[in-house]
Amino acid sequence: MDNKILRAALALLESRMPPGWRITLTRGTPRRGAASMRVTAPSRRSASMAVEVRARLEPREVTSIAEAARDLSGPLVVIAPYLSEATREKLTHSDVNFADHTGNVRIVLAKPGLFIETAGAATDPNRQERPARSLRGAKAGRIVRALVDRKQPPGVREMATLTDIDPGYVSRVLAYLDSQALVERVGRGRLESIDWPALLRRWAQDAPLDSRGDVVTYLAPRGLDALVKRLADSDERYAITGGLAAAAYAPLAPTRLGIVWMEGAVDAAERLGLPPAEKGANVVLLDPRDESVFDGVVRHQRVSYAAPSQTAADLFTSPGRGPAEGEALLTWMQENEHKWRL
Asked: Cα-flanking dihedrals φ and ψ of residue 160, to 5°?
């Protein structure tokens, strides 16, 4: 198996080499009998790279590979059938070369000077062979919010109680997060720490805004300020999110799009006097598929705003300036954890 993986990667790397450069497979050096690759420039100067072949590599495992690479006399290249985006990012950050069979390649050599970086598949072409794993779905979203919003990481049973989710499912999600280096666990048990900014980004990536609610667009004829005042006086169950909510936490440029989680959005829009609009819409109402969007709602001047964690995740896949506003809010959250984490 390893030999097939290695030779397929070698053929791909050969096709990526600049004119006049060669790459050859050797054996026995420099890692206790492991394979290595020799890269030779047109000037005949060459460098040897140790090879780490993996059938699969999770982000969590990159740290140990990077630590082992420090003991080598030369660079290391990781070879696999497929390397996820998170894994590639960690390999790049650790200065470890890599190549997968889909064409995701990054090779950096100082002597002889060589830089190759190409993009391959964004998703694993063989993912159907394994159970799908992601943070898509209402239950996963509730777990993410529970992890992000608390300074002290809850245990499995506490998490199950907080989210009203079966402990077995909670345990499986935590195992997945651990494999993706989004949480740190002591053995297979207690959570030690949570990389909550990365966790929010992953949640937004796996479960974009329009997958978490039914979207309808409207026009607020008198502007967003008038809409906010109308919401403050209404009996609707809602939570303002997006740029309007972010501005309530951190100073931002005025937003042109109001995004609101609204229970029974279509009927509520009629009561609020919002005419439907496809073009020129300045309001997006989202009828949530799970009530957790209302967890941690913050009341300010009689107006209900979605919690910072919910708002940031919503912004990352919102239209227009949403992603930039999400990054600005995330920066504020990192600098002011004491103001929003329980």
From this structure: -60, -40
Dihedral angle of Cα 327, 330, 336, 341, to the nearest 10 degrees: 170
- The Cα 54–Cα 81 span in angstroms is 8
Angle between helices 322-335 and 308-316 (to 10 degrees): 150
Distances (CA, A) of 292 to 54, 90, 171, 202, 241: 39, 32, 20, 18, 13
Give me the CATH topology for the region 209-329: Beta Polymerase; domain 2 (3.30.460)
- Whether a cis peptide bond, with omega within 30° of 0, leads into 131 is no
SS3 272: coil
In the chain, where the domains are located: 2-127, 138-206, 209-329
Give the angle subtended at the CA of 181 by the CAs of 177 and 185, to the nearest 5°: 70
Q: What is the pTM of this model?
A: 0.71
> 138-206 sits in which CATH class?
mainly alpha
Which tokens is 141 given? Answer: 């979203």
CA dihedral 173, 178, 179, 181 (to 10 degrees): 130
What is the number of residues in the chain? 342
Q: Closest Cα partner for 196 from 342, 334, 335, 340?
A: 334
CA contacts within 13 A on the Cβ side of 80:
23
How would you write the pLDDT of the chain (342 residues) with one tens digit per residue? 467 888 888 899 999 999 999 998 876 444 444 678 899 999 999 999 999 999 889 898 998 999 988 888 889 999 999 999 999 999 999 999 999 999 999 999 999 999 999 999 988 887 654 444 789 999 999 999 999 999 998 889 999 999 999 888 998 999 899 989 999 987 666 798 999 999 999 999 999 999 999 999 999 999 999 999 999 999 999 999 999 999 988 877 789 999 999 999 999 999 999 999 988 899 999 999 999 999 999 999 999 999 999 999 999 999 989 999 999 999 999 999 999 999
Phi, psi at 80, each rounded to 5°: -155, 160
CATH 3.40.1350 for domain 2-127: yes
Tokens 């004119």 found at:
19
